[in-house]
Amino acid sequence: MFASTLQILLQPVNLITALIANVIGIIFGAIPGLTGSMAMALLLPVSFGMKGYTGIIFLGALYVGGVSGGLIGSILLGIPGSTSSIATTYDGYPMTLKGQSVKALGIGIVSSFIGTVGSVLTAMMFCPLIASIALKLGPWELFSLCFCAIILVITISKGDMWNGLIAALCGISMSCVGFSPIDGASRFSFGIKTIRGGINMTALMLGLFALSSVILNYARRETVNPPMEHAKLKGFGVSLKELFEHKMLIIRSFLIGLWIGFLPGMGSGLSNQVAYAMARSSSKHPEEFGKGNPEGVYASEVSNNAAIGGAIVPMIALGIPGDTPTSLMLGGLIIFGLEPGPMLMTTSAQFVYVFFGVLLLAALMTLCVQMFGMRTFPRILQIPYHYLFTSITLICFTGGYSLTNSINSCLLMVAMSLLGLFFSYAGLPRAPFILGFILGPMLENNLRKGLTYTADGFLSFFMRPVSGALLAIAILSLFWPALRERLERKRAARAK
Q1: pLDDT per residue over 6-21, tens digit each?
Q2: Which of 154, 206, 277, 375 is deepest in the core (most CB within 10 A)?
Q3: Secondary element (H or E) of residue 229
């Protein structure tokens, strides 16, 4: 099986197709508003006309490139190309402002490769076992996981946790705009047609991160180009020694990404935030996070790419997509004549192994493409700011308009930029807000299901072992900073 899979992948047509798809995915992932999911949605019909295994190879390479490409915009411009790279901006962009753009890109590229390859190999070996575990999780566990994730990200706002809590509640409240997930009732749209179906995530991201940053920087006259590295770096700008020093961080972030990835509806958009929060809470120097700490880039990029392998497990073994890109890919598999589910490994094993193989091949291609480009990418920073601001604004409005082919999406994006300005002046962190917005519908959906399925009410969330453990972790994380500070004071008093 291995020999036949390798023979299929190394055919010239398939290699060229994979490379083209991978580069397209990287470009879409890097440009704000043009996500990897959008690339798959636009090019999915193109794959239908491809013969043999070429279609699945095209989609797999596009998927990996789209997830990995998001780090470029996050690190160089402070604008995440997709939700999977939001946490990368927290320390990647400050590293760029300190003149460490090449090093930040090197860390992100290598971390992405480690996360992708490790997760795909894990999925190949443990696909049946992992899928059976995920199948046993009910709405109680999923609600508790979402709640735990939000609390962990709130703890990022150390020293100002109330602001983090307010931001998370704002995000959850904004996610309630549109139709109710249970009964479909329209709510909180106030008669505005643009938001009747909910607030678009891409418009929110473009406004909150991109437009608001351009307005703030221009208003503050911060138009001086950040320093650019001129040192001749070898390899990837990150040594094996540095990787070994961060081995526990990499392993922990990898496991977080893998676990969250195979939970249906989750994915890299959540895993990078949770891994970042865990990295900060366990760090010896948490005060350095958000100021250009490489550990933040390691955690985010390992975890969001580890979610790739996790997300394809339920797609292949259960026929349940783990995230938006895998849901598009699932539709492609069905159109190709395959039936994702428990019997897929038996009836179409060759297709499955080719799919796993192209994910590994695409990871290697992404590594090579970004390696050759990482010394060129920072030159974007040398573009005069009046050109850069104009280009970013143009990309934002183009991406916003392409969402619905309507000016209303652009108006929504402008409204979100005003919200971003308010957050900046009020000192509210964006990370809890974004996570609250992403997980709000899932929180509500699983909470209402959990209350409906049993007569124990809220007690049922504490009675189930996994759900209870997650809630306990969340509560402990919320109060741990205060407890730790109190314990430290007691120790200092005893020392005197």
Answers
A1: 888 888 888 999 999 9
A2: 206
A3: none
- Report the alpha-carbon distance of residue 421 to residue 472 in Å, rounded: 35
Please say whether the beta carbons of 181 and 445 come within 8 A.
Answer: yes
Check residue 16 and give its pLDDT.
92
Whole domain around residue 256: which residue ranges? 2-495
339 versus 276: the higher-pLDDT residue is: 276
Residue 401 amino acid letter = Y
Bridge partner residues of 148 (DSSP):
none
Q: Quick check: 71 and 105 in contact, CB under 8 A? A: yes
Q: Which residue has the tokens 């390691």?
A: 298
SS3 state of residue 52? coil
DSSP for 345-401 reads: HHHSHHHHHHHHHHHHHHHHHHHHHHHHHTTTGGGGGGS-HHHHHHHHHHHHHHHHH
What is the SS3 assignment for 291? coil
- Looking only at Cα atoms, what is the longest distance across the chain? 77
| Cα–Cα dist 431/297, whole Å | 15
The answer to whether the pTM exceeds 0.85 is no
Count CB-CB contacts under 10 A for residue 401. Answer: 16
Domain count, the chain: 1
**Residue written as token pair 């295994």:** 53
